[in-house]
Amino acid sequence: MEQVSAKSGFFGLIASTLVIAGVGLFGYAGLQGEYGMFRLFQVEAQEAQLQKTLDEVQSQRIELENRTMRLSNDYLDLDLLDEQARKVLGMARGDEIIIR
User: pLDDT tens digits for the chain (100 residues)?
Assistant: First the structure.
């Protein structure tokens, strides 16, 4: 009978070791793996940064569309046209003082 209990104790030790190793492996993969928690936090931080960049680019796009519309043939903003002509041509009226 002693041999049977010694064998079952040895196999129980091996089985326990394998279970502990499996739990450790899955725990490590759950935290550090490609789809683990740390990777999730990195992806969420990157998503927040990209969303901020997207919002900035969209606001710039809206501003440029507005300026483009104001210079189109259908809607001409004379003040914007005057500002752009002065900027591009470097011109000023006679009663203006230019400070550089």
Answer: 445 566 778 888 899 999 999 998 888 888 888 888 888 899 999 999 999 999 999 999 999 998 888 777 777 778 888 888 888 887 777 777 777 6
Residues 96 and 73 in one domain: yes
Domain that holds residue 23: 1-32
Residue with tokens 């519309």: 69
CA 73-86-92 angle, 5° bins: 135
DSSP 27-88: HHHHHHSTTSHHHHHHHHHHHHHHHHHHHHHHHHHHHHHHHHHHTSSSS--HHHHHHHHHHH
pTM as predicted: 0.52
